[in-house]
From TrEMBL:
<dbReference type="Pfam" id="PF20241">
    <property type="entry name" value="DUF6598"/>
</dbReference>
<feature type="domain" description="DUF6598">
    <location>
        <begin position="72"/>
        <end position="314"/>
    </location>
</feature>
<feature type="region of interest" description="Disordered">
    <location>
        <begin position="1"/>
        <end position="28"/>
    </location>
</feature>
<protein>
    <recommendedName>
        <fullName>DUF6598 domain-containing protein</fullName>
    </recommendedName>
</protein>
<feature type="compositionally biased region" description="Basic and acidic residues">
    <location>
        <begin position="1"/>
        <end position="14"/>
    </location>
</feature>
<dbReference type="InterPro" id="IPR046533">
    <property type="entry name" value="DUF6598"/>
</dbReference>
Amino acid sequence: MHAERLREKEERPRAPPGPNQEDESEQDYNKYRQIWDMKWSKQYGSFEDTTSIPAMCFTDNPMPRFTVHQTTMQIFSVKVTEITGGLQWPLDVFGMIAMRDDLDHNRNIIFNRSRDNCQTLTQQGQHLVLTGPARAVVHEGHPSVYFEAILKVKGATCSEDRDLSLLISRCNTRQSASKSLVGTRCYRSKLSTLELAYGIIVACAEATIRVELVEGSWPEGFHGQLTACTASVPHMKVLLLDSGEKEAVVGDGGKMELSRRVVSVERSGQLVVCAVLSRGGEKVVEAETSLAPLEAGRSHDMLDVGSCKLRVTVAWSPILKGYPLRGFSLPSSEAVVS
């Protein structure tokens, strides 16, 4: 199965921002919030609530009455571009980015940083380090998927912080019944443009990835990356871990702390997990494994990167048809473990 490439721009004109653009961004955002409150608050709670539907809902019990292999939106990256208003690189950025879908219309967080934990963006490094989604983003039928961003640039004091982005915009795209698509969209608001790289993955299973160091040690002085992709879109990877030049963080039992762990894979496709070690910009070791999706349950394989061996565990789950559904209750957080 081969993916098509689709490049889309936001619906708004790409003219230079005018003096009232900040007010327009706030007006658009507040208007959407009012509409959301009227339509969804009684059923789904507060506008600020995050999704209560976890990943791995059906790993141990597929419950075919309530589940299906749906089309989903895979989030590959978010990049800050075209800064205005006198801003200059580097920027210390904090705030929140989320996706919203038809399952519960709540925030499915993909980026979240406090003012005390900013990410520094440079002209050469404009991509935000994503930490989500918490579950697959559903893009089935005639979906209403929204991209929401509230980002600020940290100033010397709180009063000197500046609004970098404030938006919530529908990001549905055309989809094929048989082929996955990849593309980009750009969203302008406040003092920047955000570039979203995404995929529309058809008839997919949700994969939740766990990586454990089971032998040896992570080499010091090496830049390590772990990525995942669906084999139909091998050039578009989800970054699970980027250690920089530091040793990767390994917790109890050898579990590695991944920044992201949920990806979507075509039910008839392959999940590819790759580990790369490099030094001085030169690739030293690369290892990868491919796993075929299961209806439910877990699959395992090993990655040998020379100085250490990593065990990859993937928890497979079909996707909830809708929420709420008569006769279905969400599992407790204690029941959903990786």
